[in-house]
């Protein structure tokens, strides 16, 4: 080669080096942007979960997605047992469920002592006892362990472990990313715990209030029936007010306890074969006085044939009564309410309760299924009493029966609540 060839090639090589550097820089920037977007998305998803167990598995799933690695696990510190106890995993073999990590000798234990994240680039040097096989059956090749810190002092209360299939390095930005995520996961866990405490407190209070309330109701009933006719009618009215208000309070307590029990799976369903059209007629019959009182027209399009579902009679009626009494409550005097059925091949039978009330705007169509959520009412509709528990209870019940419940609505045209149950 001539000197000129060499000169040209050197210039070209320098340009190529700049181009490669640019390409790498571009790839890293793209990757960082992508990860920041994924992180933001995963954090917003965490904030929607209040059940701690659901949250644990969401955290492990999000960890895998964030670092694009096949497996992750979450352990919480149990000081009484001097170890970290398994809570949730993704991509590991199912035996993980009963696993725990001792404080001595495990990587998690070292993370606790150091108060900092640790990466093991090649697990060949570690004791196999302290980590679990991947779903593929092979041992992970590398792992990164970051602490989950709680409270102002940043006390370590658990760890997130993420595993790679083969040996590999964990870059500082990967460690920082998982640490940032662990910080958000700790906040979500704290929130879920507070929510749980609030629910426990509420259901305990509801329990405690029941006995004195039953006594008030009974006494007011006795008082009402034994008042002498000579007394001014206003006194009788006072006794009636006490009976009515205590009945309302009793219903509210029932709803509170019901929802907590349903969510904790503490309610036993008595399943039997039921004809859905008949269940709807019974619920309509129970509520007939309310529709008459508001001069509302109710139209039931009973299907030409019978549709049988496997359900608990009382609970199915509770769902229907909740939907129909809402239709009655939120639809103005003289409005229309309709119930119809639609068979969906392979999916089951859908029951729709339609009304001519104020409707529900799209951004609130899911929110109304959250407990205690109540909409600010439409200007044409008077403020209504309620607890914001009817719809969440109805939804949990339908889901326990193997179906779905949702709302469709065009504002100012009315609402449509639909639930679908599998046929039997
Ligand atoms: P409650 O009726 O006791 O407030 P629900 O859980 O049954 O509680 O309903 C939650 C909220 O959803 C209600 O406060 C109301 O704002 C809205 N909603 C429910 N049903 C209807 C309906 N048929 N039409 C309009 N809004 C409704």
H and E string? HHEEEHEEEHHEHEEHEEHEE
Name the helicity range.
40-55%
- Roughly what fraction of the amino acids lie in strands? 15-25%
Distinct ligand kinds: adenosine-5'-diphosphate
Rg, nearest Å: 30 Å
Number of distinct beta strands = 13
- Shape descriptor: elongated
The overall average pLDDT, rounded, is: 90
Oligomeric status: single chain
The DSSP helix count reads 8
Query: Based on helices, strands and strand pairing, what is the structural class?
Result: alpha+beta
**Strand neighbour order, sheet with most strands:** 3-2-1-6-5-4
Task: Please summarize the sheet with the most strands.
Answer: 6 strands, antiparallel
Detail the poorly predicted runs: none
The separation of the N and C termini measures 85 Å
Verbal overview:
With 424 residues, this protein is of the alpha+beta class. The chain has eight helices and 13 strands. It has helices at 3-46, 52-67, 107-114, 172-226, 233-263, 276-293, 313-330, 390-400, and strands spanning 71-78, 83-90, 100-102, 118-120, 142-150, 155-164, 271-275, 297-300, 308-312, 336-344, 348-355, 404-410, 414-421. The strands form three sheets. The chain has a six-stranded antiparallel beta sheet, sandwiched between helices. Strands 8-10-11-13-12 form a five-stranded mixed beta sheet. A two-stranded antiparallel sheet has the order 7-9. Helix 1 runs parallel beside helix 4 (172-226), helix 5 (233-263) packs across helix 8 and helix 7 packs antiparallel against helix 8 (390-400). The longest helix is centred in the middle third of the chain and has 55 residues, at 172-226. The relative contact order is 0.07. The model has no long low-confidence stretch (mean pLDDT 90). Adenosine-5'-diphosphate binds at residues 326-327, 330, 355, 357-358, 360, 368, 373-375, 386-391, 415.
């Amino acid at each position: 080669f001539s000197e000129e060839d060499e000169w040209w090639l050197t210039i070209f090589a320098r340009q190529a080096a700049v181009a490669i550097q640019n390409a790498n820089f571009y790839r890293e920037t793209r990757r960082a942007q992508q990860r920041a977007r994924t992180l933001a998305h995963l954090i917003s998803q965490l904030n929607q979960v209040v059940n701690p167990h659901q949250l644990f598995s969401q955290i492990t799933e999000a960890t895998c997605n964030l670092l694009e690695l096949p497996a992750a696990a979450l352990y919480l510190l149990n000081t009484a047992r001097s170890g970290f106890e398994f809570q949730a995993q993704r991509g590991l073999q199912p035996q993980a469920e009963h696993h725990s990590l001792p404080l001595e000798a495990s990587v998690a234990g070292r993370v606790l002592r150091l108060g900092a994240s640790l990466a093991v680039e090649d697990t060949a040097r570690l004791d196999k006892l302290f980590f679990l096989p991947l779903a593929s059956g092979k041992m992970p090749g590398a792992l990164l362990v970051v602490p989950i810190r709680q409270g102002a002092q940043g006390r370590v209360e658990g760890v997130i472990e993420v595993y790679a299939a083969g040996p590999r390095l964990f870059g500082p930005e990967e460690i920082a990313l998982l640490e940032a995520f662990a910080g958000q996961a700790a906040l979500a866990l704290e929130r879920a715990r507070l929510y749980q405490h609030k629910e426990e407190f509420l259901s305990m209070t509801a329990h405690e209030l029941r006995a004195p309330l039953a006594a008030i109701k009974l006494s007011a009933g006795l008082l009402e029936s034994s008042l002498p006719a000579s007394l001014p009618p206003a006194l009788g009215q006072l006794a009636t007010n006490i009976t009515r208000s205590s009945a309302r309070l009793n219903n509210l307590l029932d709803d509170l306890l019901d929802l907590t029990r349903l969510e904790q799976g503490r309610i036993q369903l008595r399943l039997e074969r039921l004809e859905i059209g008949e269940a709807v007629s019974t619920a309509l019959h129970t509520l007939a006085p309310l529709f008459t009182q508001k001069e509302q027209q109710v139209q039931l399009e009973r299907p030409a044939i019978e549709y049988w579902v496997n359900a608990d009679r009382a609970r199915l009626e509770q769902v229907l009564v909740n939907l129909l009494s809402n239709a009655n409550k939120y639809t103005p005097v003289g409005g229309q309410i309709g119930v119809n059925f639609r068979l969906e091949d392979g999916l089951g039978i859908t029951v729709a309760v339609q009304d001519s009330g104020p409707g529900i705007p799209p951004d609130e169509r899911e929110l109304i299924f959250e407990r205690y959520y109540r909409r600010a009412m439409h200007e044409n509709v008077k403020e209504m009493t309620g607890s914001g528990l009817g719809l969440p209870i109805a939804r949990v019940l339908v889901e326990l029966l193997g179906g779905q419940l949702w709302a469709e609505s065009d504002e100012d045209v009315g609402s449509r609540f639909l639930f679908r149950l599998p046929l039997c």
